[in-house]
Amino acid sequence: MRSRHLSDEENERLYGKCFHVNGHGHNYTVEATLRGEIDPSTGMILNIQDLKTAIQIAVTDPLDHKNLDLDVPFFKDRVSTTENLVVYIWEQLSEALGDKSKLLYEVCVHETDNNTFIYRGE
Questions:
Q1: Which DSSP string corresponds to the chain?
Q2: How does residue 109 score in pLDDT terms, banded at 50, 70 and 90?
Q3: Residue 37 needs a FRET pair 20 to 30 A away by CA distance; which of 58, 66, 69, 102 works?
Q4: What gap in Å lies between CA 12 and CA 7, rounded to an integer?
Q5: Does 95 have pLDDT greater than 90?
Q6: What residues are annotated to the active site?
Q7: CA 76, CA 116: separation in Å to the nearest integer?
Q8: What is the rounded average pLDDT of the residues 97-114?
Q9: Is 12 in contact with 3 (CB distance < 8 Å)?
Q10: What's the rounded Cα separation, in Å, for the pair 2 and 99?
Q11: For residue 96, which of 67, 62, 56, 69 has the smallest C-alpha distance?
């Protein structure tokens, strides 16, 4: 993690072990929470296959095994904090859900067992 607005010394002081000029990585876990009325004919808020496809498009394809700072344009001008990552995922998932995006209630990203970040589009 590195802010282009700070010197390497400032980055190291601010981000600690997360700062490395060649990047660092995590195995994130992402949860998407939907809310809405259950369709009486299907028993679902949204077809689970449609949600899986949206997650594949919005999360897995652009992020899996990627260097966020180098491979994801969203982070060109943003520090790749998990706070920014959860916003990115929300925006991408909303777009991938299309007319069903109003069902998206919350995105939660677990960075580690102790660090979790939640965003509700606010």
A1: ---TTS-HHHHHHHHGGG--TT------EEEEEE--PPPTTTS-SS-HHHHHHHHIIIIIHHHTT--HHHH-GGGSSS---HHHHHHHHHHHHHHHHGGGGGGEEEEEEESSSS-EEEE---
A2: very high
A3: 58
A4: 9
A5: yes
A6: 18, 65, 111
A7: 23
A8: 96
A9: no
A10: 36
A11: 56
pLDDT in the model for residue 12: 84
Dist CA 106 CA 93 (whole Å): 11
Q: For 50-75, what is the mean pLDDT? A: 95
pLDDT (0 to 100) of residue 34: 97
Residues in the chain: 122
pLDDT at 40: 97
